[in-house]
Fold:
Amino acid sequence: MSTTNKEAAIGVFDSGVGGLTVAREIVHRLPNENLIYLGDTARVPYGTKSERTVIAYSKGNAGFLVSKGIKLLVVACNTASSVSLPVLSDELNIPVIGVIEPGARKAAGITKTGKVGVIGTYSTIRSNAYKNALERISPGIEVFSKPCPLFVGLADEGWTEGEITELIARQYLSSLKETGIDVLVLGCTHYPILKAVIQKIMGEGITLVDSAEETALEIESVLRERGEFNDGNAKALREFYLTDVSDTFVSIAGRFLGEKIENIEMVDIAGTPA
Ligand code: DGL
Structure:
């Protein structure tokens, strides 16, 4: 089917289900846009893998979505955004939007103490992508980072509250609380699912920045600038591609997306590092 650029879909990829928190914000903010989601469920997690591997996987994922004729690529995975965005932006001739820059911009804009916390996977924190973006946007800003790897499993399991979740959250977050930060960036696709418990541990005085929400705003502004809104689209298309489909996927995915997920197809993606 040939489409004009307006009608072409927004392509979104993530290491698995987590990026559905970004897809949910896109659907909420831009309901007329066609959306194609690719979750690399066979190779998740990315957060514990090397830069080289994540870049190779990201290139494969991007290539698949580009072959679907998308008008804009969203790298919904924080880990993939933090290491592969420059490569993808260089190689593709469509706009490529990651989740780091929008989240960092928001955090830098609202901090009053000039002290910002960032939580994410090991790879995201090790890459310093948020720290570098925050320091570039707001020189002199102080950034306190902390990997919180177990949050991914808790979100997948739907353990969004309760004693164990609170204990883990307190263990990760109490040192950050003592730094004087007034803003905390949720630098991982899974963390918005745990927003309530994170807010409870951090206290009301600390504002949480959801990179997924900020990314949807950024997509809206890029489409506006390019005159590429798919206005007048009565029934937006949603397609979901996965590299592995497990029994638990549909229920987990529904929780992340906020609606029942349909139109799932399994695909093979190339991308083992050379
Ligand atoms: N999507 C990843 C991220 O935002 C979390 C899951 C993973 O480690 O792959 O960093």
In short: The chain has two domains: 10-98+213-266, 101-211. The radius of gyration is 18 Å.
